Amino acid sequence: MIRMLALALALLAGVPALAVQPDEVLGDPALEARARELSAVVRCLVCQNQSIDDSNADLARDLRKLVRERLQAGDGDQQVLDFLVARYGPFVLLEPPRTRSTWLLWYGPFALLGLGAAGVAVAAMVRARRSSVPEPLSPEERSRLDALLSDDAASADTAGEAER
Length: 164
Fold this sequence. Notes:
Elements: H1 2-13, H2 29-41, H3 58-72, H4 77-88, H5 103-131, H6 139-163
Helix pairs in contact: 2-3
């Protein structure tokens, strides 16, 4: 019995809790569906990381009512969003518009990722170049090399004299 209760609670924990109150729901299902879609893309200005559809803040409730009022008045979805942006600024949208002033917001993470990848590639090239430099000769190796070079020089001198 306790296991089944725990399982039920675990399953319910994954269900999103919507903050829309029953008195806010519109009678027309199509209009309510549009209101829910719009509420999902409008930011709660109090919570800032939640949509007004998910927030229990008083301002979010007021914004949900405003969205529904505008839809009942006959406004289209874009008109409602434009009204909210004109009143509260582009920050009211969960997904800011792609304009020159928001390019850094939209494309900055990709630029940083590219710079990081370039930095890793340059570091790998520098490390590979450093590892390809041979180690200096030990004193024993140096003396052997000198002996070989002096033997080659002596044999080259004798070969040159023989040809004359």
